[in-house]
Amino acid sequence: MVSEYDFWLLDLDGTLVDVEWSYTRSVFDRVGDRLGRSFSDREADILWSGLSGSRNAQLREWGIEPDTFWNAFHAEEDPAVRAQHTYLHDDAAFVGALEAPVGLVTHCQQFLADPVLDELDIRDWFDTTLCCTEETGWKPDPTPVERVMADLGLLESNARGVLAGDGANDVGAAWNAGLDAIHVERVGHERRGQCVLGDYRVQSFDELEIGT
Asked: Is residue 182 classed as helix, strand or coil in its secondary structure?
């Protein structure tokens, strides 16, 4: 059982929302054309879902310069089309009913996250949002989490908080920032190839008794 927290922080992609596979596959086809290197379904899945942890480390392991990949990737992403192919997980609806302060901290870039929040009409679920950049740092670095906590006026407080996400980086960021961590396993342990620890490990938020 999850006791009532003073505040909640959440990841976006893979946690609250996901994108239809047809969109993901088409993006990687076009990125592959730009880079002169095709991506298998498994490789696209690993990078899109962050199944191996650090995407940049994975790219380097495959002999791909991360900056080159991301420049091509972002050039091929159409924010409006992506938003149209993004869906909200049914069990994520509890976030809109939370009475505690709520923050969003995501690796999804601002130009992509904004249309998704508007298309799904969930922007007002969050009291503050942060899209990670090189300047803020990336989860599991606690810095972006701490920035959101500061925006909520809770960084120096004794408030008890939790961060929920679908990846090991989310759990690491929570623990590094002194928060509890909920890992929601959307893809399954076999597809991920490893088991991610957390203070709570669920396949759906419906498994938790969440105080509001």
From this structure: strand
Q: Contact at 8 Å (CB) between 157 and 7?
A: no
Residue pair 108/116 in contact (Cβ under 8 Å)? The answer is yes
Query: Would you tell me how many other CB atoms lie within 10 Å of the CB of residue 177?
Result: 23
CA atoms lying within 13 Å on the CB side of residue 178: 10
Q: Cα separation of 75 and 98, whole Å?
A: 36
Query: Three-state DSSP class for 157?
Result: coil
Place of tokens 């999850």: 2
Domain ranges within the chain, ordered by starting residue:
7-18+86-207, 21-82
CATH number of 7-18+86-207: 3.40.50.1000
Using CA atoms, how far apart are residues 133 and 152, in angstroms rounded to an integer? 19
pTM for the structure as a whole:
0.88
Per-residue pLDDT of the chain (212 residues; tens, 9 = 90+): 466 899 999 999 999 999 999 999 999 999 999 999 999 999 999 998 887 777 899 999 999 999 999 999 999 999 999 999 999 999 999 999 999 999 999 999 999 999 999 999 999 999 999 999 999 999 999 999 999 999 999 998 999 999 999 988 999 999 999 999 999 988 655 555 556 678 898 999 999 977 54
Gap between the Cα atoms of 189 and 51, Å rounded: 10
By the 8 A CB rule, do 181 and 170 touch? yes
